[in-house]
Structures are given as structure tokens and as C-alpha cells.
Amino acid sequence: MRKVLICALTVQLTCMSVGARAQVFSINAFKAPPPVVVLPRPRPAGLAPATPALTPREKIAAPVKAVAAKTRAVKKDAVKTPAAPAVNKTAAVPDKTAAAKGAVSKNSPFYDPDANPPPIVDVNESLPLPPYPPHAIVSVGKLRTYTLGEQDTLPDVARYFNIGYVEMRAANPGVDPWTPVPGSKVVIPSFKLVPRTPYQSGIIVNLAQMRLFYFSKPGQPPVTYPIGIGRDGLTTPLGHTTIIRKEAGPYWYPTPRMRVEEPFLPAAVPPGPDNPLGTHALYLGWPEYRIHGTNLPWAVGRSVSSGCMRMYARDILNLYNTVPVGANVTVVDQPILVAWVGSKLYLEADPSKSQEVDIEIDGTHKIKPLTPGLKKVIIAAAGHDADKIDWAVAKQVVDERLGYPVAIANLKGPVVEPKPPVKEKPRRDLFTPSTVTRYDFNE
Asked: What does the alpha-carbon distance between residue 172 and residue 143 come to, in Å, rounded to a whole number?
């Protein structure tokens, strides 16, 4: 009996020991105890707020921040304190120099030429014109007209007939450049007076006409091309230079000024459709100036470049193949030209710089009157037969600024000769693509 009780007790104790071990290794043994929530004690009233502990970095910066805060406080108090009357009087005087230069300097990377446009300065047209050299050629080309088709635009017609954009708009005031009336006639201002220079050789550029005249042989009529010139503030220089080299497929290297204005420009642009120099370039003796093609044909005949002279693709190719290295280049700015062609005295009045801007925007311009000084210029250019000038016609030419020569005197009769009316047959091709719209402008 005693043995039976001892065995039963031993079994019970063994089971209890196994159960305790199982409880120790059960999943409940790994559960975290429930969190004990300790509420913060309220701070007694009247005590200063507790200062948080500073990190080592904050301990170093604390004295610097304290000095800066003290400096701001001193400046704030100084603003509140009224200044002496003498100081106020001096501060009230505006800085005329700063006002004239504008809020941002031109040398600043934040300078915007559109927001801060430079003043437009027109050429003094009262200055006497230089004489033509002996046996000079004074005119080139002839005046033409063109009947517009349905799909023709003024820029397309201008490019087809080798005319610049402003040049075309000035010759046809009141004509919408993008939606002209089909069947209407427009003037092709291909009749030009040659600029007045001491000699006629090499290249002569007249900025007012936005044209280049190339004299390949002495005594032979020049070949003329429209060009794009420098914009306001970056005008094409005047004077004399030469062609120092020619290059086909040129690389374009933006100047430091260009890269400041447009930081996204690369250091160099290889030959290709994205090259602003086009396919060919003539480098001049003036650094950073050249005569070149363009990948923007709409820029020809406008003042939009940085000073270089841009040409249509076909024109720069022709000039590149004919002009030699070392050829003379003369650049003038003559908006008023007067010359005798046969028995007639012609006056060509091209738009001034300020009028070019107006014509390019809306096709109109502010009239510049025929001043006494300009009359003296015309009389001096006319010579002994100045008494034949019809001043009413001359005033109209100066007011209109059409950009092509108009006769103001005639030794053989009246200036304005009556023309018999011409009956034209109606065109049937107005609503079909014309030669202009079918022309490949990539040539």
C-alpha cells in the first residue's frame, strides 16, 4: 500500500514539473507585458518654461544665432527710430543714373533684353550723303508686281522673289502678311538704289535697306541679297573690314554673353540643322561677326541677330562660291538715298530703325516729316537740276517709306506720267497652288 502511494505521488509531481516547463516555453511567455501609462504631472504656475537639452552641434551654433538675433533687433529698432531731417532729405533724392540704366544691369545674368529694352536711336538723316565714285552704278533691278494666289502668304512671296520680310511689308502697307486677299496685286521691291560709298568693290552692306551688294567685277552691276541684321543693343558695326576666311559646315561657338543670357546653350554646336550659322559662313576681320546662312529663314530681312548678317540658304551658297578671301566689306546705314537714273531723279526712303519695329509688328509706322535738313540733303544730291524736284512727291515718299525708289524729278517732262488703263484678264489659277507655294525653300 505504501509503495502504491509513493508511486502515485511521484507521478503527480512529475506531471506538475512537465506542465511548468511547457508553460515556460509556450507562446504566452514571449508576450510583452501591458504598458503602464504614466500621466505627466502639471507644472506649477509661475515657473519658466523648461529649456530642452542641446546637442553638441547646437551648442556650437548657439552663440552665432544669438549674435544674429541681436543684430536683427538693432536694425529693427533703427528703422523705428526717426532719422535726422538731413538724412531724410538726402535719401529722398532719386538716383538718376540707376534709373537710366534700369533695375538690372546688362552684365547681370538676370538681365532680360525684352524686359529692359535699350533705346532705339535712329540715324541722323540730315547729314550730307557721300558722293558716288566716278562712273558708279547707282541702281540695280526693276520694280515688279505679283498677283496673289489663294495659298500665298507675304513671307512666302518675299522669299521666292529674294526679298526680306520687313522690306516686303514696307512696300505693301495694309496687306495682311498671313491672309492676303487672293487676286490682289503686291509690289515686289526689287528695284534698289546702290548705297553711296567711296568705291564699288567687294561687298557693300546697307543696314537701312537690309541688303548686301556684291561687286564681283569693276563696272559690272552688283548682285544683291536680303540679309538679317543685329537687333537693338547688338547692332551690326559700321565701317570697313575684309573677309579673312571661309568655311563650309562651320561650328558655332556661343559667346560668353550668349551663354550668360541662355545658360542652356552648349559650348559648341556642330554642323547640322540646329546650327544657327547654316551651311556656310564668311568670317570677317571684326571678331565675333560674320556673314552666314541660317536655320531660321524667317530671320532674313529682320533685326533679330546678335550683330551677324544672315542670308537665305541659296544666297549664302552663291556668295560663298563667288566671293574670294580678302574681299572688301563696307557696312553703311543710309535710309535716304538719292540718285539720277537717266533723266529722272529717284528718291529711296527706307524705314528707320524705330519704323522697322513698327512695320514688323503691325505694318504701320510713325511718320517722320521732311525736315529742312533733309531737304538740303536731297538738293545737294540733285545738283544743278534741283529746281526740277516735285517737293509734294518727295514729301509723300519720305512719309510712306516704301523702301523702293520713286522719281521726284524728270528732265523730260512731268514727274508723274499718266498711264492708260490696262484691262487684265481674270486669272483662273488663283485657287490652285502657285509657283510660290510650290517652291522648295530648302534649296
From this structure: 13
Cβ contact 268:252 at 8 Å: yes
Q: What are phi and psi of 127, to 5 degrees?
A: -75, 140
Q: Residue-wise over 316-333: b if at least 16 C-beta within 10 A, else e? A: bbebbeebeeebbbbbbb
- Please give the model's pTM, rounded to 2 decimal places: 0.70
290 or 81, which is more confident? Answer: 290
Query: Which amino acid is located at 326 in the chain?
Result: G
**Higher model confidence: residue 431 or residue 134?**
134
Active site residues: 292, 308
pLDDT at residue number 92:
35
> Rounded distance, CA 163 to CA 300, Å?
9
Separation of CA 27 from chain center: 79
Q: What are phi and psi of 80, to 5 degrees?
A: -70, -30
Determine whether domain 197-333 maps to CATH 2.40.440.10: yes
The total of other beta-carbon atoms located within 10 Å of residue 440's CB is 6
Q: Hey, which residues does 346 pair with through a beta bridge?
A: 339, 407
Residue 76 pLDDT grade (very low, low, confident, very high; cuts 50, 70, 90): very low
Task: Report pLDDT digits (tens) over 232-251.
Answer: 656 788 899 999 999 898 88
Q: What is the band of 296 on the pLDDT scale with cuts at 50, 70, 90?
A: confident
pLDDT at 54 > cutoff 70: no
Give the CA radius of gyration of the chain: 41
Q: Whose grid coordinates read 524667317?
A: 298
User: Of residues 67 and 252, which shows the higher confidence score?
Assistant: 252
- The structural domains of the chain, with segments of one domain joined by +, span 102-195+337-443, 197-333
